[in-house]
Amino acid sequence: MAIKTGPGFGGLTVLTAVAPATWGTTYLVTSEWLPQDRPLLSGAIRALPAGLVALAISRKLPHGVWWWRAAALGTLNIGAFFVLLFVAAYRLPGGVASTLSAVQPLMASGVAFALLRERPTAWRLCWGVAGTVGVAVMVLRGKLEFDAVGILAGLGGSAVMAAGVVLTKRWERPPGVGVLAFTGWQLTAGGLLVTVLALTIEGPPPELSMPAVGGYLWLSLVGTLLAYALWFNGIGRLPVGAVSFLPLVSPAVATLLGRLLLDQTLTVAQTFGFGLAMIAVVAAQLSPDAVRVITRISPLRKRN
Predict the structure, then answer these.
(1) Which of 1, 8, 158, 259 is least surrounded by CB atoms within 10 angstroms?
(2) pLDDT at 145 (0 to 100)
(3) At CA 82, angle to CA 174 and CA 161, rounded to 5?
(4) What is the per-residue pLDDT for 102?
(5) How far is the CA of 120 from the CAs of 9, 13, 173, 238, in angstroms?
(6) DSSP per-residue string spanning the chain
(7) Which residues of the chain are modeled with pLDDT < 50?
(8) How far is 156 from 159, CA to CA, in rounded Å?
């Protein structure tokens, strides 16, 4: 009997998960190397140069209906998401912001049902709750501070990313357009939006130190250009319900980097939360039928 784990459970899923894994480095890079109190500038430098590089390499511009579709997807996946993400990050403790972002699988299930008629399964809904709990246990520490604007921004960021994932899946890439060009369209559109907001609200950029330049290069080339190319490729080939769980990898990586590089200790409870979040990511890629088959044949394998 063949075990159906969903398209790309193996290599494609792991490759797509590289994207949120690189996003998990953002907190470390931002806190250690980037100028403080310039969240919009960071979003603009992260998105726009990467988009222009992708356009220069692919040499392909949108056409027809894809001008406004690329603008819409770029606003959801990049522009609005970056702005809301940084607002939440600056107004909330990192643990609270990460926990709010962890509700994305549940939001994506609702948007997927509304736009794609992809009915959420009880299996994935339960693991969506488990993943949120795992991230909360992993990252919530000490006295919690709640800011209404920050809470709304955190939830809004999860909502626009969920909508962007579903619309990307619904519209798909136009025929003859590679993933690099498709990524470049969105990064450029979203980057232009964030750049206008950055110049209007924060003013001209400050003089950058060499560590800041290195940090921006990492976030732009690896954490954005490479990461979003892998991300959009995965969205096009994996089920929405499965791919929406992969961003849970991001706070897990951020927590591990804090432990390894910033001497932040990991409690037993945090280790449990990390394990629960990762189990939720893996379990969401499986169907309940596949789990039953694996459970049924495991003792046979042991006896053989």
Answers:
(1) 1
(2) 59
(3) 55
(4) 72
(5) 18, 19, 24, 15
(6) ------TTTTHHHHHHHHHHHHHTTHHHHHHHHSPTT-HHHHHHHHHHHHHHHHHHHH-----TTHHHHHHHHHIIIIIIHHHHHHHHHHHS-HHHHHHHHTTHHHHHHHHHHHHH--PPPHHHHHHHHHHHHHHHHHH--SS----HHHHHHHHHHHHHHHHHHHHHHHH-PPTT--HHHHHHHHHHHHHHHHHHHHHHHT-SPPPPPHHHHHHHHIIIIIIIIIHHHHHHHHHHHS-HHHHTTGGGHHHHHHHHHHHHHS-----HHHHHHHHHHHHHHHHHTS-HHHHHHHHHHHHHHHH-
(7) 1-8, 293-295, 300, 302-304
(8) 5
pLDDT at residue 87 in the model:
77
What's the token pair of residue 70? 């690329």
Phi, psi (deg, nearest 5) at residue 104: -55, -40
pTM for the structure as a whole? 0.82
- Which residues contact residue 12 at a Cβ distance below 8 angstroms, ignoring those fewer than 6 apart? 234, 237, 238
- Cβ(1)–Cβ(294) under 8 Å? no
CB-CB contact of 66 with 240 (8 Å): no
Identify the CA nearest to 108 among candidates 158, 151, 70.
158
How far apart, in whole angstroms, are the C-alpha atoms of residue 112 and residue 123? Answer: 16
